Amino acid sequence: MKLSKTPLILAVDTSCDETSVAVANGRKILANVVSSQVELHKKWGGVVPDIARRAHQENLPVAISEALKRVGLDLDDVEVFAATQGPGLAIDLEVGLHYVQDLAVRYKKPFIPVNHMEGHLLSGLILNSQGNGRFPESDIDKLLPALGLLVSGKHTELIYLSDWGKYEKIGKTLDDAAGEAFDKVGRMLGFGYPGGPIISEFAKQGGANELIDLPIPMERSGDLNFSYSGLKTALLYGLKELEADPSAPDVGTLAHDLSYAFVDAVKKSLEVKLRSAIESYPEVKSLFVGGGVYKNETISRRIGWVARTYGLEYLLPEAKYRGDNAAMIAVAAYRNYNQGDYITDLEKIREVDRIPRLSL
Ligand code: KG4
Ligand code: ZN
Question: Is 277 in the pocket of ligand 1 (CB under 6 A)?
Answer without folding.
Answer: no
